[in-house]
Specification:
This protein is α/β, with parallel strands linked by helices and 233 residues long. The protein is 46% helix and 16% strand. The C terminus is likely disordered. Keywords: DNA damage, DNA repair, DNA-binding, Endonuclease, Hydrolase, Nuclease.
């Protein structure tokens, strides 16, 4: 049973991805525009330490993040990490934090989990991933690039190009400005892609994916060599 979790690049510093690896999880780093971890089809997790939770509520980041998480994923989740009782020591306006968490659950349908520390967070993520990827419905695919609400052709173009490995919103826009159309990007040579991306490896990975034949694979069957998104990440 192979469990895969996508982690945002910024989570490397937290040490949690390494803890996940120690638990036998395959961790793939990516530039996630929404959430800190993607654990399954339509399912993603935002992680907040108690201090970050308090700060994000008062500087208005919390509801922006929760709103986008709920908008992009059908199963949005939040892990609050640390001693929740510390909130009363951090701020006199602790009721505002409680209200924010209640609103996240009621208004945005975000499931809230609590963990004692980073090690506990890794355990929670593992349990969620196990349940989601290998629950009653059997094996499920991880959908890193979930369906978003797109209002224009330009948004759709950016959305598609951002699905390329190691390509965030900045590089996606750069590629589209350079080549004009997605078709031109697909037809570009490795050297042309390298000039736009500034990275030979990224250029080679994208070039390879665009020209690889699709093969339906079983992620649990390690004996069969296959071409899938994970081969390029």
């Amino acid at each position: 049973m192979v469990i895969r979790i996508y982690a945002d690049d910024r989570e490397k510093a937290s040490g949690i991805p390494e803890l996940l690896k120690e638990l036998g999880i395959t961790v793939i780093f990516s530039q996630l525009s929404v959430a800190d971890y993607v654990i399954g089809e339509d399912a993603a997790v935002e992680r907040k330490s108690v201090n970050d939770l308090v700060n994000s509520v008062f500087d208005k980041r919390f509801f922006d993040q929760i709103s986008r998480l709920s908008e992009v994923y059908n199963f949005p989740m939040l892990i609050v990490e640390g001693d929740i009782n510390e909130i009363r020591k951090i701020t006199e306006k602790w009721r505002a934090i409680n209200s924010a968490l209640i609103s996240a659950t009621i208004d945005y349908d975000v499931k809230v989990f609590y963990s004692r520390d980073k090690k506990d967070t890794a355990e929670v993520l593992k349990k969620i991933a196990e349940k989601y990827q290998f629950g009653e419905n059997g094996s499920r695919r991880i959908n890193l690039h979930n369906k978003a609400k797109l209002e224009s052709i330009s948004d759709m173009q950016l959305y598609i190009v951002e699905s390329f490995p190691n390509v965030g919103s900045v590089l996606a826009e750069r590629l589209l400005l350079k080549f004009g159309t997605i078709q031109n990007i697909c037809n570009a040579s490795i050297s042309e892609l390298e000039k736009a991306l500034g990275s030979r490896k990224k250029a080679e990975d994208i070039y390879k994916i665009l020209r690889a034949h699709y093969s339906k694979t079983n992620a649990d069957n390690d004996s069969k060599k296959s071409t899938s998104l994970f081969d390029f990440l």
